[in-house]
Amino acid sequence: MSKLTHQAILSQIKNGLIASCQPVDDGPMDNPKIVAAMAQASVIGGASGLRIEGIDNLKATRPNVTVPIIGIVKRDLPDTPVRITPFLKDIEELAAAGADIIAVDGTDRPHPVDLQTAVNKIHELGCLAMADCSNLSEGLHCKALGFDIIGSTMSGYTSGPVPVEPDYQLVKDFKAAGCYVMAEGRYNTPELAKKAIEIGADSVTVGSALTRLEHIVNWFVDAVKSASK
């Protein structure tokens, strides 16, 4: 497990790429050994940090890398749309498995555990706390609660059709408000990842474009098919 101080962790991922190694659920690559290999390959490629979903995936990955890991658990619950690290048990298990940073849903939707309790538990266990938010008011609220990193992760994913482009304005607004900003959500080309840093993000997370092979192949297939129409 990383022994870096909180400030050292933030410094290590500053201006860096976080590779989100989350394969398609129940797909052929949805296996802890494969996730760990994705993570190692990402680090070899220069990733400053990793975002890993699931306790088994985190346990498989942690012994093989030294970069900071953002840990999450995703759950589909019947009484809330909140999916990301909804329970205190998830936080406890992520910390025990070696997460340096623990991310939770930071939206204003109904939570099984209130956000203040969640951030307190994350800090109690010695980890940095990240809030995955969808708008400025949520980010400001989470910052006031004590979250160390504010992410644009949920922008475009809480209602209506998902936009094509990232939410650049939200990144700018978070930065103007004094947040440590994680740009995340639809930064699916090197140019977009570069732009995230240029507009003020402290770090940028990229997922599907790096580790969801089914999605990447489909992008190319659609492009090739469109050429024959």
Automatic annotation (TrEMBL):
Record bears the keyword Isomerase: yes
Gene Ontology CC annotations of this record: cytosol
Single annotated GO MF: N-acylglucosamine-6-phosphate 2-epimerase activity
Keywords for the protein's UniProt record, in alphabetical order: Carbohydrate metabolism, Isomerase
Enzyme class: isomerase
Database matches in Pfam families: NanE
Gene Ontology biological process terms from the UniProt entry: carbohydrate metabolic process; N-acetylmannosamine catabolic process; N-acetylneuraminate catabolic process
EC number in record: 5.1.3.9
Catalytic function, reaction form: an N-acyl-D-glucosamine 6-phosphate = an N-acyl-D-mannosamine 6-phosphate
Pathway participation: Amino-sugar metabolism; N-acetylneuraminate degradation; D-fructose 6-phosphate from N-acetylneuraminate: step 3/5
SUPFAM superfamilies, per database record: Ribulose-phoshate binding barrel
Family as reported in the entry's similarity comment: Belongs to the NanE family.
Job of this protein: Converts N-acetylmannosamine-6-phosphate (ManNAc-6-P) to N-acetylglucosamine-6-phosphate (GlcNAc-6-P).
Protein name in UniProt: Putative N-acetylmannosamine-6-phosphate 2-epimerase
Source organism: Pasteurella bettyae CCUG 2042
Gene from which this protein is expressed: nanE
